[in-house]
Automatic annotation (TrEMBL):
Database matches in Pfam families: Fapy_DNA_glyco, H2TH, zf-FPG_IleRS
Gene giving rise to this polypeptide: nei1_1
Protein name per its UniProtKB record: DNA-(apurinic or apyrimidinic site) lyase
Keyword Thylakoid in record: no
GO biological process: base-excision repair
Length: 333
C-alpha cells in the first residue's frame, strides 16, 4: 500500500500539472461514470494530501477524494512538469541527511527500473509516461500517441490539453462536498506535512498515551497518525529501539515524541527522494547500493531470518492486525 510520502508526491504532481486548468474527465472502466460526468469541464482549484488520501478541489465546491489502497496507482502521460522540491539527480535530500554522500554521478536505477533519486525524472517538460504508486516506475515514451490509449481498467481519467492522469484500482474514488471533505479529514490523525507540526505532535502524543493498544497497531491506525504503513512502522519502531507490543500508554512520553519527530524527518526524505530510506550514516557506495536495491534501504523490514544489522540476532516476522511485522527481538526487547 502506498504510504504517506507517495501520496504527497502524487499531490504535488497534480498541483503542478492540473491546478488552474479545466479537466476533461471520463471513466473508461465505467465504474465512476456519474462522478466523471460531474467533474468534466471543471477547473482544478487545489489539491491536498493527508496521510494516504488525496483530495482534489474543483470549481463549484466539488472535491474528489482518492485512497489508493493496496492496488491503486496513478499513471501520468504527456507533458510532466516535475515539482522542483522533489529530488533531482544529485540526490539533495540524501546528501543532506547522509554523512559523506556524494551523488553527482550517473543516475541510480533500482531493481524496478526507477531512477531512485528522481523518482519521476529530473525537472522537465516532455512527453513521458510515469506511474506513481508504491513501486513507482518511470518509462520514457517520447512521441507517443496523444491522447494516450486506455490500457487496462482505468477508473478515472483526468486530462488537460497536455497532461493525462489515469487512476487504476483505488480503494476509494468518490466526490464530496466541502463539509464531507472536512469531515473525512477530521477523522484522520496528524500528518507532519499538513498544518502545524508542533500541534500535530501534541495530538499524536495524546492519542498514543491514552491507549492500551500495542504501539505497533497504533502507528498503523490512521486516526492516530496519518501516512504510516507497514514499512515505516517497522523502521520507526526499530529506530526507537521499541518493543512493538508495548501498550501505547506504557511508552514513555519522550519516546512517543521521538517517534513523531522521526516520522517528520523520514516523511520529508521520502517525499523528496521517492524512497523509504530509513538508514543513516551511509557511505557514498552504501547509499547508492541502498537506492538501487529496496531491501538494502531498511533496518528490519523484509529481512526475516537475516541477522540484525546492529546485534546479529535473526529478524523476526509475525502477524499483528492482519499485517506483517518485522522486528529485532534483542534490540527491541
Amino acid at each position: 500500500m502506498p504510504e504517506g510520502h507517495s501520496v504527497h508526491r502524487i499531490a504535488r504532481q497534480f498541483a503542478r500539472n492540473f491546478v488552474g486548468k479545466p479537466v476533461v474527465a471520463s471513466s473508461p472502466q465505467g465504474r465512476f461514470a456519474e462522478g466523471a460526468a460531474l467533474l468534466d469541464g471543471r477547473a482544478v482549484e487545489s489539491v491536498q494530501a493527508v496521510g494516504k488520501q488525496m483530495f482534489l478541489e474543483t470549481e463549484g465546491d466539488l472535491w474528489l477524494r482518492v485512497h489508493l489502497g493496496l492496488y491503486g496507482a496513478w499513471d501520468f502521460s504527456g507533458e510532466i512538469l516535475v515539482d522542483p522540491t522533489i529530488a533531482s539527480a544529485n540526490g539533495r535530500m540524501g546528501q543532506t541527511n547522509q554523512r559523506g554522500t556524494d551523488l553527482d554521478e550517473a543516475p541510480i536505477l533500482d531493481d524496478a527500473g526507477e531512477n531512485s533519486l528522481a523518482s519521476i525524472g529530473a525537472p522537465r517538460k516532455t512527453r513521458v509516461h510515469v506511474r506513481m504508486s508504491e513501486a513507482t516506475k518511470g518509462l520514457a515514451d517520447e512521441g507517443a500517441e496523444w491522447p494516450p490509449p486506455v490500457v487496462g481498467q482505468v477508473r478515472l481519467r483526468l486530462m488537460t490539453d497536455a497532461t493525462c492522469a489515469d487512476l487504476r484500482g483505488p480503494t476509494a474514488c468518490a466526490l464530496q462536498t466541502p463539509d464531507e471533505m472536512l469531515a473525512t479529514v477530521a477523522k484522520l490523525g496528524p500528518d507532519p506535512l499538513v498544518g502545524d507540526v508542533d500541534a500535530g505532535e501534541e495530538r499524536f502524543v495524546a492519542a498514543v498515551r491514552r491507549r492500551a493498544v500495542p504501539i505497533a497497531l497504533l502507528l498503523m491506525d490512521q486516526s492516530v497518525v496519518s501516512g504510516i504503513g507497514n514499512v515505516y512502522r517497522a523502521e520507526l519502531l526499530f529506530r526507537a529501539q521499541l518493543n512493538p507490543h508495548t501498550p501505547g500508554r506504557d511508552v514513555p512520553e519522550e519516546t512517543v515524541r521521538a517517534l513523531w519527530r522521526d516520522w517528520v524527518r523520514l516523511l520529508a526524505i521520502g517525499v523528496e527522494t521517492g524512497q523509504m530510506m530509513t538508514m543513516d550514516d551511509l557511505t557514498s557506495d552504501q547509499y547508492r547500493a541502498a537506492m538501487a536495491h529496496r531491501d538494502d534501504r531498511h533496518w528490519v523490514y523484509h529481512r526475516t531470518g537475516l541477522p540484525c544489522r546492529v546485534c546479529g540476532t535473526d529478524i523476526v516476522l509475525e502477524e499483528i492486525g492482519a499485517r506483517k511485522l518485522y522486528w529485532c527481538p534483542r534490540c527491541q526487547a
